[in-house]
Amino acid sequence: MLVESDGDPAARVAAGPHPVHNLWRLRRYLRPYAAQFAWLLVAGLAGTAAGIAVPLVVQRVVDGPVARRDPAGLLQLGALALLLGVAEAVLIFIRRWVQSSSAIGMEAALRADVYAHLQRLSTGFHDRWQSGQLLSRITSDLSVIRRFLSFGVFFLVLNLTTYLVVVLLLIHLHPALGLLVAASAVPLLLISRRFGRHYHAASRRMQDQQGDVATLVEETAQGLRTMKAYGRGPELAARFTGGARTLHDTGVRKGRLLANTAGLLDLVPNLTLGVVLVAGAAAAARGVLTIGELVAFASLQLMLIWPVQSLGWIIANGQEAATAADRIQEVLDTRPQIVDSPGALALPREAVHGRLHFERVAFRYPGTAAPVLDGVDLTIEPGETLALVGATGSGKSTLLSLVPRLHEVTGGRITLDGHDLRELRLDSLRRLVGVAFEEPTLFSMSVRENLTLGRPDAGDDEVRAALALAQADFAYDLPWGLATRVGEQGLSLSGGQRQRLALARAVLGRPALLVLDDPLSALDVHTEALVEAALRRVLRNSTALLVVHRPSTIALADRVALLDGGRIAAIGRHSELLATVPAYRALLAAEPPVGQPPPSGAASTASPAATSDGRGLVRS
Amino acid sequence: MSVPEQAEPPGEEPELTRWRGTATDPEADRSRAEESTPEAVARLRRLSRTLLADLLRPHRRRLGAAVGLLLAQNAAAMAGPYLVMIGIDRAIAPLRAGDARPLVAVAGAFAAAAVTEYVARRGFLALSARIGQAVLLDLRRRVFGHFLRLSVGFHERYTSGRMVSRLTSDLDSIAELVDGGIDSLVLAALSILSVAAILLWLDLPLAAVTLFAFPFLFWLSRWFARASASAYRRTREAIALVIVHFVESMRGIRAVQAFRREPRNQRIFVALGDDYRQASLHAFRLIATYSPAIKLIGNVTVAVVLCYGGWRVLGGQTEVGVLAAFLLYLRRFFEPMQELSQFYNSLQSATAALEKLAGVLDERPAVAQPARPVPLPTGAGRGEVVFGAVSFGYRADTPILSGVELTVPAGQTVALIGPTGAGKSTVAKLVARFHDPDSGTVRLDGIDLRAVGDADLRRAVVLVTQENHLFSGTVAENIRFGRPGADDAAVQAAARAIGAHEFITALPDGYATQVHRRGGRLSAGQRQLVAFARAFLADPTVLILDEATSSLDVPTERLVQRALGTILRDRTALVIAHRLSTVETADRVLVLDGGRVVEDGPPAVLAEADGRYAALRRQWRESLV
Lengths: 620, 625
Fold this sequence. Notes:
The structure holds two protein chains of two kinds. Chain A contains 21 helices and ten strands. In chain A, a hairpin with a 2-residue loop joins β9 and β10. Chain A folds into two domains: 22-332, Up-down Bundle (ABC transporter transmembrane region fold), CATH 1.20.1560.10; 349-572, 3-Layer(aba) Sandwich (Rossmann fold), CATH 3.40.50.300. Chain A is elongated and about 120 Å long. In chain A, α2 (34-68) packs parallel to α5 (131-173) and α19 (574-580) crosses α20. Chain A is of the alpha/beta class. Mean pLDDT of chain A is 83; it is low at 1-16 and 591-620. In chain B, the strands form two sheets. Chain B has a six-stranded mixed β-sheet, sandwiched between helices. In chain B, strands 2-1-4-5 form a four-stranded antiparallel β-sheet, covered by helices on one side. The model of chain B is unreliable at 1-14 and 26-33 (pLDDT under 50). In chain B, 63% of the residues lie in helices and 9% in strands. The longest helix of chain B has 53 residues, at 262-314. Chain B is an alpha/beta fold. In chain B, β1 and β2 (401-408) form a beta hairpin. At the A-B interface, α2, α3, α4, α5 and α7 of A face α3, α4, α5, α6 and α9 of B.
């Protein structure tokens, strides 16, 4: 099972040096609540003491007023019992009230930290981890930990104390019987320990399997349209059923483990009570023990059942919490790969000329043998627009992602005005770079928020200018204008509209560097021409790197670079490259001329005929 | 570890709620399962009860056995204090007289009760785990299957985040109840009833005093049940927002990082988390009030019983042993109620979750399966698509298509062009039956699509979009998605035909390469090629391509087009493309605008006319620098 779940290689690393090591490391989340925890313990212990005192009052009642026929004494002791009872209830109220706020506060703090850390981890990490696995960590795992750190640990302390005090009282009442009751703890502890070991393994398995099912659910939700288009519902349902059945089997096994243990945890104290009763009755018959003492003894012994029974639950809960802590620390222990280096520089926008230089840049995805980029040398002068051209899968998008450091070069370096990008502060670098990805990502929030993602301070004029440039003025005509929610949970926009919003986002605030990945692919010819005209004006002030598939878009660029085999194979003006570089011609010569029927038959590569036909068109 | 708090400028407080923007359709935010009017809540409660009964029905016999075991366990547990009473009142005196038999009998009965309780409890827990897990499995499968059956329109409204939250967090909270708690719940109710009965039988006046506590308990419990039901419903809604925000920001992490969204995201996440914290705190505080209140009533009752019982023993109306038994039984009476409040948390979460799931299961698929599907005619020359007066809009007030009449003869390749929002993709989705028309019919080979079975329809019609979703698994598995039974040779032949073979064999593990999370390591163009190979393998009668080649470079697109030349020859095709190169090879061009067909004819003919197509074509030719 551990190996099967694909795409999540780092997810199942070994736990820490000790099973609870990772749980122990979370203690700092309890620290803000240390004082509260102390109050909690005091209130809890005092409440328990009041609870324990009641059977002793009962003993006094039976042996005192009842035996001596003293109604006044009875009333006094009754009042005492009432007082103790009210005190216990009040103390429990205080304890629970305090407990709830600290538990939930701790959970919220931990959740916020995990989220913050996940936001810092590089895209490489997120490529490997499914968000279903991450989601199960911030929901189910966190609530397991919350339950344990607040209730589990507390009851562990409280119940152990209760156990100890009651056993001491019992020994005081009747040493032999008291020792017998104390001895009955030994089998209970053995049972609990064995249970804990097995349950730990089972619960870890269950949590991983839950993560797997969550992943499958998420994937299905994402690929729903594809699933519908091919009618593959039954296959996906079968896959889901497989996962759900594994969960079922683990659940049943876990249930059986619990059943075996919980029964034993009842049996031992009950048998002990039987022995207490028989031996106690015998002692009472001999006059060694009073009837009142026997009643108190029995009630006190009954008080031990809950602490002992709960021990099993607490241990199980603790095991789950330890597992959950392992899973959370796996994430928290992953060091962000792309961080500010010590003494990193912040470059203000005004100080940037915008000379972008790639020096023998190499990149390899972790865990793969073949580099995607292998010695890219490239210089883009300030204000220049360079188009990057290459066959499908040649690494164009990868190259672009290196500029805002979404991935880090694995060899060579990229410099901006002579500064290695790694010497710049991430925040500063990303402020300088405007990016549009090949897939326009919109979040479920207002148009305005989507445009000003990282710049909530952007002014209305800036937003208006960016929208105008991207021919995205349609945004003002949405039902609530820029306040209209778009994205998954909002109004659905067409591919072209999404792309124009993404472009507007990239150019908002005129960044020094523009990195655009096929920014016009989803636009119709008319809109494309309008956007191009507007873009041309912006590009004059920015250094730009564009990935381009279409001859039409190349007109935007001053120069074109051909990416092939992980390096720049040719660079120059469009017309030069068309004339001199056959590989470039093959990639970018215009589409076949009008009226010619599509050549039929199997084809393995672009045929020379098509290329020359294409060149025939390139004249205007 | 925590991100430094960046002070929000004054007056920006509502900013943290404004960022979400206004949903165009307020109901888009909720499904029927999340409405909160009293009638809707009552309806959901009814639905969830029906669902529960339905889920439990197949396990009736096991459930009966479980109840039997539970009764045995309860009876054995109840015997304890009674035997203590017998021991004190009936065994000590004979023992003093040298007769040990009553004590031996009590001891024997005690041992028997303990063993019975052990066996019954163990059996019950094992059995209830099996029933509970079987019910969970059933529920998971039902909900997942139902989500798959619901229309694309539903999912666009409901969103994937909410679907994930239903199938993970909601089901987990039900699982939590199944894992630990069911026995406590049932046992508590059972022991309360049996203790009450035993008390009445032991000593009527003393029991009457005890029963005086009942109205208080009843009133308190009713208050708690009502208050916490709404409190837990609020927590479920709050956590759903946290989940949606989390999943979206993880999925869009590239944009988040590239645009330095992290600090603002963090503030929003903390604010949403805070909402959830407030909601949970409220729920927890209800328990923090209820549980000690029960304890208070219990303790007061004990004190009263002690006085009144002691007084009755004084007066000789009852025996010491009875008083002892009373006090022991009272503990068994109030303690389960305490425990109950512990589990009430899980119970309420589970109930709220079950209501949401019942609401989902109650959604009727808008694009329903026909009760009696009409088989599509088979044989060569099939694939005629006819739109008869089709009108359609995603929302009632904005029609996208109005009265579209269209006949695409079998085997014809039709290109759809027109400005953004003209309804091209809508035509594609109607043919693929992602939606049903509001009025009019879409017919395939003369049969209304509403009457065609899903398996039949999907074999005949395949829609390829620019979405190109790849599922986790290997490249080969993703191609095989088009036809699950296909062997490796067929998969490779499909890849070859489309021109994807070369790049696939160059991948680290060739066809066995894992595509990972949503095709993370394949470029957009490569994903499109895989999607094409998938469609090719599916071998449909009608193929719809909606911007399916937008991310391909020119040679690859040309390759794909050449392959399409062969592929499309004997099947019907609807092609939507912005690039006119694709359009010019079509048999026929349809220009759509404002939900109507405004031009219709072979590309060569339309190019000569002075219409929109000719204008677009001129513009395109100019763009080919």
